[in-house]
Amino acid sequence: MSQTSVIPYLFFGGRCEEALDFYKNAVAAQVDMIMRFGDSPEKPPPGTVPPDFDDKIMHTSFRIGNSVIMASDGCESGGTAFAGFALSIVPTDKEDASRMFNALADGGTVTMPLGETFFSPCFGMLKDRFGMEWMIAMQPENQASQS
Question: Taking the model in full, what pTM does it have?
Fold first, then answer.
């Protein structure tokens, strides 16, 4: 039996390329591939995609560390409303946690400042400029050595 994976798929409502550039700088995201609506071998059904979306991203795949995330501009402009979930990053040290947290918070909203908690030596939560919620959560040293 093959190994099953769950990969988040994010829709950025016309701001996907901007989000990719932001995540490249904020969390060292590496883009694996991009397909634009105008490059599709089949045109979408009439009325499903705005006429000015040829240069928008139909599908992209990028990595943050070992994790794969897929994304798109979706089929409409005007932003998105991410709700009911967050992406969690497990940094290797406090300096990396602080750098990523501050970079993701730029233009966003901090919902819990980065600091020590009973479950993590360095934890914080924020909503970035695209409305994506993030948790930065270092593992306690005793858990990190078991991984």
Answer: 0.90
The SS3 assignment for 67 reads strand
Chain segment 67-121, per-residue pLDDT in tens? 999 999 998 777 778 999 999 999 999 999 999 999 999 999 999 999 999 999 9
pLDDT digits over 14-30, tens only?
999 999 999 999 999 99
Give the dihedral sign, CA 56/130/77/85.
positive
How far apart (Å, rounded) are the C-alpha atoms in residues 72 and 41? 17
115, β-bridge pairs: 123
Task: Please indicate, yes or no, whether residues 101 and 136 belong to a single structural domain of this protein.
Answer: yes
Alpha-carbon gap, residue 128 to 105, rounded angstroms:
5
Where do runs of H (alpha helix) occur along the chain?
16-27, 94-105, 141-144
Phi, psi (deg, nearest 5) at residue 38: -70, -15
87 and 21 assigned to the same domain: no
The answer on 45 and 109 residing in a single domain is no
Do 75 and 12 meet the contact criterion of CB atoms below 8 Å apart? no
